[in-house]
Amino acid sequence: MLNLPNTLTIVRLALIPIIVALFYWPTERSNLFAALVFVLAGFTDLLDGYLARRLHKTTKFGAFLDPVADKITVCVALVLIVEYYSVHVHEYFPHMNLFVSIPAMIIIAREIVVSALREWMAEIGKRNMVAVSWVGKWKTTIQLISISGLIWRYNEAMIYAALGLLVLATVLTIWSMVMYLKVGLTSMSAQDMQAPDEQ
């Protein structure tokens, strides 16, 4: 059960409190280090999936833990930046906090919806029908870059560029969720049509 890919996933979970601690550490470069650790966590997410497939080390434990670690990492980072830009909104343009909070709410809601959908699809043996699409992969990449920039906040140019990327990631988030829901709803309709015949 504890192979290299799963170890990387556990390491990613262990990095979460480090990100939080660095984010709030009152030093000049702590936000840079917090962003770097967040990027490292994102890199382990890519690496453990690649190694699991490459080394044929796919396990049920890894299939469960990997998306959990990914979603916890992203959700914690989103909560951190929502709190920061809500407190420091006066340092930026009016309603800057809304441009961070609303995308964060949409992204977190999407993760909950898609996770529930994948669990249900797994129960009926159609888990592969909601595999990660190219839209989801782009969403994840852009989301990683945008959150990293909003954590680092080196200067205003970086913050506003990262904010723009967060909005783009949100659009891709909605797009990918709609794609998954279309597949899921089609399967649900098929299940409902089969149900009377099975009774």
Give the oligomer, counting copies of the same chain as homo and different chains as hetero: single chain
CATH topology: Four Helix Bundle (Hemerythrin (Met), subunit A)
C-alpha-based Rg, rounded: 19 Å
Shape: globular
Q: What would you say this structure looks like, in words?
A:
This protein has helices at 4-24, 30-54, 60-87, 96-123, 134-152, 156-198. It is mainly α. It has a single domain (4-185), classed as Four Helix Bundle (Hemerythrin (Met), subunit A) (Up-down Bundle), CATH 1.20.120.1760. The longest helix is centred in the C-terminal third of the chain and has 43 residues, at 156-198. The protein starts with a helix and ends with a helix.
